[in-house]
Structure formats: structure tokens, C-alpha cells
Inverse folding.
């Protein structure tokens, strides 16, 4: 091997350049072949299917299509109506709850004030002399 490399070192420049170009050509040819083979493998994976005939296409009847569309619209309207009714019920419920809270608050206030007024009357009555009609 050493003798071959020594001869290559002593050879003229044109022979060295030709050898480098030949080896470069072999390298490029090998890369091209590898890419081509890998591309063939990819196409083998993607098998083409033959079409034996066309499938029947179902055409929708315009009347049926219109009926289906109207049914969808009616269903959407019913859903919206139910949603509106639910919202109204929630509003009524909230109003009733607010009213109940307010009335409870008023009852508590009036309960305190009425018991306070009863105590005040009792105190006033206790300070006043009693008159009896006999």
C-alpha cells in the first residue's frame, strides 16, 4: 500500500487531478443511485389503485333539501325559545329572592322597632300613676 501511495506522490499533476475527478464522479454517481433507489421505495409504498368504475353520486332532491333546512331552522328556533324562557324564569326567581330578602330585612327591622316601642310604652305606663274608676 505504501508503494502505491509513493508512486502517486511522484506522479505528474494531471494524473493526480484526473484521479480526484474520477473518484468524485464515482462518489456523485453512488449518491445519485442511492437517492433514486430510496425514491423508488417511496413510490412502491404509495401503490396506485385502479379505478374500475365510478361510484354512484346521490343527488339530493330539492324538496327534501328544503324540508331538511326548514326542520333545522325550526329546531334552532325552538332551542332559542327554550333558552329565552329559561332566562325569564331565572330573572323571576332572582327578583323573588331579592324581594324575600328585602322583606326579611324589613320584618327584622320592624320586629326590633315594635319590641322597642312596646318596651317604651311599658316604661311610660310604669311611670304614670294608675287611676281606677270605682
Amino acid at each position: 500500500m505504501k508503494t502505491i501511495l509513493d508512486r502517486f506522490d511522484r506522479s505528474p499533476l494531471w494524473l493526480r487531478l484526473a484521479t480526484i475527478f474520477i473518484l468524485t464522479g464515482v462518489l456523485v454517481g453512488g449518491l445519485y443511485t442511492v437517492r433514486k433507489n430510496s425514491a423508488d421505495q417511496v413510490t412502491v409504498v404509495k401503490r396506485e389503485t385502479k379505478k374500475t368504475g365510478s361510484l354512484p353520486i346521490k343527488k339530493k332532491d330539492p324538496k327534501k333539501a328544503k324540508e331538511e333546512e326548514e326542520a333545522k331552522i325550526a329546531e334552532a328556533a325552538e332551542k332559542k325559545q327554550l333558552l329565552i324562557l329559561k332566562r325569564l324564569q331565572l330573572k323571576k326567581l332572582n327578583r323573588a329572592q331579592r324581594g324575600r330578602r328585602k322583606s326579611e330585612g324589613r320584618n327584622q327591622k320592624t320586629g326590633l322597632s315594635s319590641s322597642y316601642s312596646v318596651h317604651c310604652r311599658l316604661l311610660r305606663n310604669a311611670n304614670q300613676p294608675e287611676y281606677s274608676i270605682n
Observations:
- The chain is about 80% helix and 0% strand.
